[in-house]
Each structure stands twice: as structure tokens, then as C-alpha cells.
Amino acid sequence: MAAVAASSRLRLLLLVAVLAAGAAAAAAGEQYRVGGPDGWIAPPPEEKELYYSRWASSIAFYVGDSIEFEYRNDSVIKVSKAGYYHCNETAGVDAGDAPVPGDGARVFYLYVPGFAYFASPDLGRCNEGQRLMINVLAAVPPAAAPAPSTDYDTGAAAGSAFAAASFFAPVVSAAAMAMAGLV
Predict the structure, then answer these.
(1) Residue 48 vs residues 43, 52, 54, 100, 132: alpha-carbon distances, Å
(2) Of 116, 23, 22, 30, nearest to 65 (Cα)?
(3) In terms of pLDDT, which residue wins out, 157 or 6?
(4) pTM value?
């Protein structure tokens, strides 16, 4: 009986951790359109080395963000550092990533900190400057917390009980399901 209770507690803790991590990632992420209004294009020849680095330099990318590539008669792949610098990769670093050129959009989620490299799988376009390197930062800096407003009827911080209840309701519901053996 004690082993079953310990197993249930472990499943509950894992479930709560997964839910909390998912909620944090969903709340933290911003999505950016690569290249701004022009989208994913081969840059003008005179800007081939600076076009996408200039665009990326104005943005701080964090784990949990995503970048969207919109293109016409092209595609995009995530490449290695060497693939970025040498424009010699036509398939992405992720297994099975060999997109077919066409019109469309592709979103990449930024899951790990560090440099991430992207390029057109068309080697000619990559050599023309259609490639992107970004530095993904580990964590979003904390926002300044607003001063709590006071509910003069009770003296408690206004909305604090409601905010806590609405945040923890899914966690409590999932915990109850886990304890009942439904998950």
C-alpha cells in the first residue's frame, strides 16, 4: 500500500512539474517574423552580408520565443554553424528536414540558449545572403512587479485570491486526476 501511495505522489509531482513548465513556456514566448514586412527573401546584393544580421540585432531572442519565416518559391532549414558560414547544407540539422520549395511559412521554436542558424536550402540564395544567425538568451528578464492595490473592504490585496485560484485550478484538477489513476 505504501508503494502505491509513493508511486501516486511521484506521478503527481511529475504532472505538476510538466504543467508548470508548459504554462511558463507558453506565457513567455514572443513570435517574430524574420525579415519584417518583406519576409524571407534574398537580400539586395549590396546588403547581402548585413540584411538579416541588421534585422536580428534589434531583437533580444529568448528561450520560449519563436521565429516565423514567410517565403515565396523558397523554403528555410535550420543548419549547423558550418552550414551557415559555407552555405553547403540542403537538408536541415533535424532528422528528415528536407523541405520542398514553394510558397508558405515555417515557424521554429527556440528551445535552447545559444546560437541558432537558418538558411535557404537553395545554395545560391544562401550565398546571396539569405541566411540568419541569432543568439537565443536563456531567460527573459523579470518584469518589475506592480505594487499591489488594496481592497479597502477587506484589507487584502485586490484579486489575489482569484488570481491564485485561477492559476492553480488546472494544477489541482490534474493532481486530482492523477490521484484517481486517470492519468
Answers:
(1) 5, 8, 11, 24, 11
(2) 30
(3) 6
(4) 0.62
User: Is the model's pLDDT at 85 over the cut of 90?
Assistant: yes
Catalogue all structural domains in the chain, each as residue range(s) with its CATH number: 31-137 (2.60.40.420)
Average pLDDT over residues 39-67: 95
Please tell me the predicted confidence (pLDDT) of residue 140.
61
